[in-house]
Amino acid sequence: MNNLALFDLDHTLLPIDSDYEWGQFLVRTNAVDPVEFKRRNDEFFAQYQAGTLDPVEYLEFALGTLARFPRAQLDAMHAQFMHEVINPSIRPCARELLQKHQDAGDLVAIITATNRFVTAPIARELGVQHLIAAVPEEDAQGNITGKLLGVPTSGPGKVTHTHAWLETIGKPLAAFERSHFYSDSHNDIPLLSVVTHPVATNPNAVLASHAANLGWPSLHLFND
C-alpha cells in the first residue's frame, strides 16, 4: 500500500451537495419548518460557495436539527434520503475512479466537511471503508446531541484530520510514494497543497484558476 487516494465528496464524487440536499429533503418531507429552515440552509450554502462560511456555526445548526429526532427515526429518514436523492445521483464515472485506485491497492478515503451522520451511508454505498468527516456527539442511546466533537473537517481542518487519521494507522503522509487528493473547491487548497498529486475535480472557478497557475491537473467527471 504505497499510495494514498483522498476524495472530497460533494461536487467531487457526487454531482450534488449531500449536506444541502439533506436540508432540502427535511423541508420536502415536512420534518422541519419549511420557510425558516430553507432560509437558513440557503444562507449557509451561499456562504460556503463564497468561502465565508463559519464551519462551527453551520455544523451546530445542522447537528442541532438532527438532535430533534430519535436515532431510529433519523436512520429511517436517511434510508429514504439515500433511496430518493443519493443513489440516483451516483454516476458510474465516480465509481470507476474509486475502483481504479482500489484495484491499484491504494489506501482510499473520503474526507468531507459534511457530518458523519449524513455521509457514512454514502461512503458505504460508494464502497469506501475510510471516512473522515465532522463527528456529531452521541448520547449512550446513539441519539445525536447537537454538539460537534473536535474541530471541523473543512479548510485547514482537513489537513489536521488527515494527519491524525494517518497517525492512527501508523503511516504518515510522507511515507506514501504518491498521495492524491481530488476536490472541486478552493476551500480544499490547504490539503491539495500538501499531497504529491492534487487533482482539481469539477473545480469551481477559484480552484480552476489556482490549479492552472500551479500546473495541477483538472478532471471533469460530470460533463454530460
What is the topological layout?
Elements: E1 3-7, H1 18-28, H2 34-50, H3 55-66, H4 71-89, H5 92-103, E2 107-115, H6 116-125, E3 130-138, E4 144-149, H7 156-168, E5 178-183, H8 189-192, E6 197-201, H9 205-214, E7 218-219
Parallel strand pairs: 1-2, 1-5, 2-3, 5-6, 6-7
Antiparallel strand pairs: 3-4
Helix pairs in contact: 1-2, 4-6
Q: If you had to describe this structure to a student in words, what would you say it looks like?
A:
- The protein is α/β, with parallel strands linked by helices and 224 residues long.
- 48% of the residues lie in helices and 19% in strands.
- It has helices spanning 18-28, 34-50, 55-66, 71-89, 92-103, 116-125, 156-168, 189-192, 205-214, and strands at residues 3-7, 107-115, 130-138, 144-149, 178-183, 197-201, 218-219.
- It has a seven-stranded mixed sheet with strand order 4-3-2-1-5-6-7, sandwiched between helices.
- Strand 2 (107-115), helix 6 (116-125) and strand 3 (130-138) form a beta-alpha-beta unit.
- Helix 4 (71-89) packs across helix 6 (116-125).
- The longest helix has 19 residues, at 71-89.
- It starts with a strand and ends in a 5-residue tail after the last strand.
- This is HAD-IB family hydrolase.
- Pfam families: HAD.
- Keywords: Hydrolase, Magnesium, Metal-binding.
- It comes from Massilia agrisoli.
- GO terms for molecular function: hydrolase activity.
Briefly say what this structure is.
Keywords: Hydrolase, Magnesium, Metal-binding. The protein contains nine helices and seven strands.
Keywords:
alpha/beta, HAD_hydro_SerB1, 224 residues, HAD-like_SerB, 19% strand, 9 helices, hydrolase activity, metal-binding, HAD-IB family hydrolase, single chain, seven-stranded mixed β-sheet
